[in-house]
Specification:
Elements lengths: L9 E7 L6 H9 L7 E7 L5 H6 L6 E6 L4 H11 L4 E4 L5 E2 L3 H11 L3 E11 L5 E4 L10 H6 L10 E3 H7 L10 H10 L3 E13 L9 H18 L8 H16 L6 H17 L7 H15 L2 H10 L6 H10 L2
Parallel strand pairs: 1-2, 1-4, 2-3, 6-9
Antiparallel strand pairs: 4-8, 5-9, 6-7, 6-8
Helix pairs in contact: 7-8, 8-9, 9-10, 9-13, 10-11, 11-13
Length: 333
Amino acid sequence: MTDASRSPLISIIIPVYNGAATIGETIVSLQQQTHSPLEILVIDDGSTDDTVAVLQAIAEPRLRVVSYANAGQAVSRNRGLELARGEYISFIDADDLWTPDKLADQLAALMAQPRAAVAYSWTDHIDQNRQFLRHGPQLCFEGDVFRKLLYSDFIGSGSNILVRRSAIVEVGGFDPSLPPAEDWDCWLRLAQRFEFVVVPKPQILYRVSSQSSSFNVWRMERSSLRTIARAFATAPASAQPIRRICLGHRYKYLTYKTIDAGCDRRRALTGVRYWLLALWYDPTLLRRRVIWKVALKILAILLLPQMPLQRLMRRYPKPFDTESLLYRITFGD
């Protein structure tokens, strides 16, 4: 590992609520980083399971655990930010993992671009048993990425970025009133003031779970609309004409989320509504064949029994890779 005393100091912040089943694996992935962090700061958000006991059993001198009453993920991240001592900050959720070179590569990218304040990498999706499911978006946007982020949150999760502490403090951290879109809101506020850099390889292993807050698509819809309204309220005049298109892209993302990590008939019907709203905000989608492939997956969920559908998706995975399809629509690949 790199000697942290002679390198820029990084604090890792982990917000956790009832994460006993996975947080041990997450800590191991941090201990394996080739750039040694200054501290691993766990903010226990009032867990009622064995999370704290699991953490206390880990022999790691850089690990610090601070417990509070339950207040939500955004508040936990902000609490960690107040306590962190590092010049650079990275966040990771208690069920996600990093590849060993994640911190080192992101730090090198930021050091090579002094005007940049945020580094991000690509994401792979894994299941509850750490088995690979699919690749996330593999995009290479750098510099001024504000308009691209308005189109879609290509960062993907709160477990991704490495950010200069001064920059995230300047924009005010995470807004607790916007779960589960508080990540996207924070990235947008950062992108309005600072440049981004990319490490073009998968380094974040995002665990797909029906228990995650983003699985509540109805709540995500409400917070997404508020995030878009806030972003355009402060966006330059040149960005205002793309507001409807951005709403269309967000409803395409919500369409995907209705059928991610499992889907029932109620969610599929919600997906139909989101799909129609996406077309209403951006009618040009009618000319894109991929949007009809998305509709095909929703239709299959509505019409086919669950087991035949699962067999169909295993045999023909590409047409059902909804996330890749939606990013192709958004960014024109």
